[in-house]
Amino acid sequence: MINKTVCLWIDFMANDKMLFSEKEQHRIFLEAKESGIKEIVIDGKIPYGFTTYLSHSAPHVSSFSDGRYDSWKGRDLVRELIHRGREYGLLLWVKLDIFTEGHKDFKDKFWDEKKSWGVTFLQMEGGGSSHKGEQGNIKTMFVNPAHSEVQHYELGIVEEVAKQYNPDGIILDRARYPNKFADFSKESLQQFSNWVRLPREVEGREILYYDEGENWWREGNMYHEWVIYRSRVIKEFIVKVKERIQSASPLTKLALYTGAWYETSYEEGLNWASSNHMLDKIPHICKGDLYCSTSLADEVDRIFAGCYYPEIYRLRGTGGAMVEDTVEGSISRAKELINGACELYGGLYLLHYHNDEKKLEQAMEVIMSHSDGVMLFDHIYFKKSVWELVTKFVNNRV
Questions:
Q1: What are the DUF4985 domain coordinates in residue numbering (predicted)?
Q2: Are strands 253-259 and 302-306 parallel, antiparallel or unpaired?
């Protein structure tokens, strides 16, 4: 039987109290090794723009304005855990949140200095913003992926991590727009106008407009081109990231994290499918050679697809209906979309399997049958019975 890999994700914000202790670091890594886990994901840069390592340009987590991470001052978690990984023979991936640089509730000095980088959301006629932030987490402050200074800054962080630590891999998270209502800044609209070769600046309402009669947002006549433009911005940035990593640390792999719901990813400028996938059941706007040319799977070594659904199997109900918003549905779709362009790891959200190890084992089996490995999010949900299950699961596959 092919020995596919189990990867453990350790989120800094959820696990910082445990990670602060060297003894606990050793315990986590020893349990991972003994259970058969081969890879660990650690945070290098959290969603609010702070780094867990000592950066020359980005603020450290210990400078978070409410003081929650004061005790981490002077600590370089990435260096500590890279060393720990090598000590225990585990591969280390450093995750970087890319286009997020602030927290809505806190006025940090860094954000005050860089607030011109922030995304501009489309405004409704008569005032009022269409959306305040990332869907599902309005505390996260996004910056404009098309802004030249933003790209220069984020590329510098990627290069810094690759050069200083030579990790086994770097994962890009939130390397996208927050939602379809951003970015409508003058800079982005001018770039878009130049890209479509219009002699004037495109207006926001030509892309999206609010239909007061229907009480709903409608697509303007330039919306399809806008979707492609934003996907090209992300694609071209990923290509630059790849070049920086290869130059600084040739053996370091590049991965992308994304939710496995491809049907709405275009709203965030994220085309993570292969350019030659054969899946037809996708939004019409995601079809065509121009959109396919913005593929990210063609540029990275691996995609981590979060299959974060409580239900496992597609076939449910007395009528035998196929339900796609499940672990099985999302990972099988992801496999078809990536079509062998890169490695695929399916992610499971362990909170969905709280006190139900049998269900977790079934979900892991489903992921493994459709991908190159399973990623378990997050270590904070691990307890003795989960460690025992993972050990049994890995041993049965050797």
A1: 291-387
A2: parallel
Domain enclosing residue 104, as ranges: 5-179+224-395
Closest CA to 294 of 175, 149, 194, 181: 175
- DSSP class of residue 58 equals S
Residues contacting residue 38 through CB under 8 Å, at least 6 positions apart: 5, 6, 7, 90, 91
What pTM value is reported for the model?
0.95
* Residue 103 falls inside a structural domain: yes
Is the link from the previous residue into 173 a cis peptide, with omega within 30 of 0? no
Q: Quick check: is 191 in a domain?
A: no
Please report, for residues 49, 151, 156, 249, the alpha-carbon distance to residue 160 in angstroms, rounded to integers and kept in the order given: 15, 14, 6, 10
In the chain, the N- to C-terminal Cα span, in Å, equals 7
Q: Which amino acid is at 236?
A: E
Query: Residues 254, 289: contact at Cβ < 8 Å?
Result: no
Beta strands in the chain (DSSP E): 5-10, 39-45, 91-97, 100-103, 140-142, 169-173, 208-211, 216-219, 253-259, 302-306, 315-316, 321-322, 343-349, 373-377
CB 306 within 8 A of CB 258: yes
Q: What is the CATH number of the domain that holds 352?
A: 3.20.20.80
Burial label, 109 (beta-carbon count in 10 A; 0-12, 13-18, 19+): exposed
CA–CA gap between residue 151 and residue 98 (Å, rounded): 9
User: CA-CA distance, 368 to 347, in Å (whole number)?
Assistant: 10
Residues forming a β-bridge with 169: 93, 253
Q: Kindly report, residue by residue over 177-221, the tens digit of the pLDDT.
A: 999 999 999 999 999 999 999 999 999 999 999 998 888 999 999
CA distances for 243 relative to 79, 139, 300, angstroms: 23, 32, 11
Q: Within its chain, how far is the Cα of 55 from the centroid?
A: 21
Considering the domain boundaries, does residue 389 fall inside one? Answer: yes
Rounded CA gap, 227 and 146, in Å? 13
- Return phi, psi of residue 93, to 5°: -105, 135
d(CA 176, CA 143): 10
pLDDT tens-place string over residues 34-68: 999 999 999 999 999 999 999 999 999 999 989 99
Domains identified in the chain, total number: 1
Phi, psi of 377 (to 5 degrees): -115, 110
